[in-house]
Write the structure tokens for this entry.
Amino acid sequence: MYEMTQKSTPPASVRLVDNLQFQFGLALKPASSGLKVWKSSLEKFFVTRVKGFEPYKMVACTLVFEGTQQEVEQQQREVYRIAQKHKGMKAGGENGRRGIN
């Protein structure tokens, strides 16, 4: 997050979610059904087994990008480059929308 604040085009909103908030958010997530159960299990396997994230140590960062299409694309490039540098990963827009609301 510090590195993000040093950029000339930071996102419009950045919110850090600590592990307790992250776990609480997961507990409030509606139960999956049908193919979504399989998708959710596959995502969990990828995040924990392939990427190596520890569920009780994970944190998240919700972002809101605003501006022209070019400005948003530039903000996203910078943020995702920083995240990759620090072994972070993009979790997708749906997770972000749920975290912002």
User: Anything to note?
Assistant: Residues 32 and 38 are 9 Å apart (CA to CA). The two ends are 21 Å apart (CA to CA). The first helix runs from residue 2 to 5.
